[in-house]
Amino acid sequence: NDTHQNASTDLSPQIQPSLLRDETTLSRLTETIKNFDQLNLREPLLRGIYGYGIEHPSDVQQRALKPCISGYDVIVQAQSGTGKTINFIIAVLQQLNMDCKDCQALILVPAWELAQGIHRLVLTLSEHMNVTCHACIGGTNVHEDIKFLQAGAQVVIGTPGRIYDMLKRSAFCAEHIKMFVLDEADELLSRRYNEQICDILTTLPRNIQVMVLSATIPSDLLEFTTKFMNDPIKVLIKREERTLDGIRQFYANVERE
């Protein structure tokens, strides 16, 4: 695979002929789905979704899942609690090559708490799939990370600093990475991770799928995405469109101690 030469070079991805799209294709990709069965998801993945208690796709998932699982670059702008994290996890799990034990999906997050939460969610939704996943975060044992990664992790989640350190140490191979996710991208960039993210991109294949999730799309993020995204499909969920459909909520009355 071709790789970027250095962080200052053009990071524009190579356009894959199979992903070139006309208006008809775009219309098909952006049509709203009403249930998960419309997506021809893997049966073990469907079992994980329903087992987690998700009965219907949220507004974000209704609009973004199809282009995400089809391999297109996607920018999702939505507030917290709209299901955008589960959206990209489903897309990642659907596209994994289960015969390949190397890293295929790399997920960057701005904080270790978020990395751990996504790690738990990946393991929960992939309960019936035998997926290997590891979270790399600062403040933990570097050698433990290296051991887990060298043993094989199909999905790797982490903060930019630790991920870049692991790549420099050759703790895992970037050759088979085909999905790159920036979760809470506005936070990632506001914390001045730009240079580290560019450094990470220099190690990745150029024909990867890039998914960006963010509550806001400030101008610096928009400018940044133009450097490494290929004609992304944009999904915007306005604040007033937020829905909790498909999420069952419970409460329990407890006596004050």
Give a brief rundown of this model.
By secondary structure, this protein is of the alpha/beta class. It is 38% helix and 12% strand. Helix 3 runs parallel beside helix 4.
Question: Order of strands across the widest beta sheet?
Answer: 3-4-2-5-6-1-7
Q: Which architecture per CATH? A: 3-Layer(aba) Sandwich
Number of helices: 10
The value of Rg in angstroms is 18 Å
Structural class: alpha/beta
**CATH domain topology:** Rossmann fold
In the predicted model, the low-confidence regions spanning at least 5 consecutive residues are 1-18, 241-246
Give the mean pLDDT. Answer: 84
Share of residues in strands: 5-15%
Compressed to H and E, one letter per element, the order equals: HHHEHEHEHEHEHHEHE
Spatial separation of the terminal alpha carbons: 62 Å
What is the approximate shape?
globular
Report on this model:
- The chain is of the alpha/beta class.
- It has a single domain, classed as P-loop containing nucleotide triphosphate hydrolases (Rossmann fold, 3-Layer(aba) Sandwich), CATH 3.40.50.300.
- It is built from 10 helices and 7 strands.
- The longest helix has 14 residues, at 112-125.
- Mean pLDDT is 84; it is low at 1-18 and 241-246.
